[in-house]
């Protein structure tokens, strides 16, 4: 059974996903990553708030129990706690692990010389013929590399878990479970099968073409319009 679509919630999810991609692009810039982490957590947790608002007034009886269970999900509780720490209290809840690789080039050459001394005088000096030693070529482009991986800190069930992969997991949960279920548990909108061609004043004018159909005039009952036979 398919319920009502939640366009505002899906827009919020798309915007949150974009914010996470911008955070991912900043992972090797410590200051930029910490700055973007604050707004990203706000955007990600904003999705649930919009679902809550957009479903009000259209929820089936099953929605309430399911929504309460959703709010108690361990990952959601952890992400909400991180958002509150970062966004509301200004507490950094991530730690950077730095990984550095130093590139190096090795080059080896072989040389052997001999000096012959007789009677206190040098009578011969030069190299000894030998097979040339193998040459170890340097790497084509020896470079140093530095990357940063980010982990949650400060307590909670997902403490010491990698930041980006944990946020990705939360977004996947929203996209694949929360939004489809929220939409499915919405009441379908009731639309009158009869076109609203009458006016509330009962004049009987067809608003589509300016005339009243032969033998029919609109009767307006509250919010619904129906056709009635004229006497």
Task: Please outline what is shown here.
By secondary structure, the chain is α+β, with helices and mostly antiparallel strands.
Task: Draw up the topology in text.
Blueprint: H1 7-25, H2 30-54, H3 61-71, H4 74-88, E1 94-101, E2 113-118, E3 121-127, E4 145-152, H5 163-184, E5 216-221, E6 224-229
Antiparallel strand pairs: 1-4, 2-3, 5-6
How would you portray this structure in words?
The structure is a single chain. The protein is of the alpha+beta class. The protein folds into two domains: 7-98 and 150-184; 190-231, no CATH class. Helices cover 40% and strands 18% of the residues. Helix 1 packs antiparallel against helix 2 and helix 1 packs antiparallel against helix 5. It starts with 6 loop residues before the first helix and ends with a strand. Mean pLDDT is 76; it is low at 105-114, 190-199 and 204-231.
Largest sheet: 2 strands, antiparallel
Instruction: Kindly estimate the percentage of residues that lie in beta strands according to DSSP.
Output: 15-25%
Span from first to last CA?
Answer: 44 Å
**Approximate shape:** elongated
Q: Stretches where pLDDT falls below 50 for ≥5 residues?
A: 105-114, 190-199, 204-231
Class by alpha and beta content: alpha+beta
Strand order, biggest sheet? 1-4
Number of domains in the coordinates?
2
List the helices and strands in order. Answer: HHHHEEEEHEE
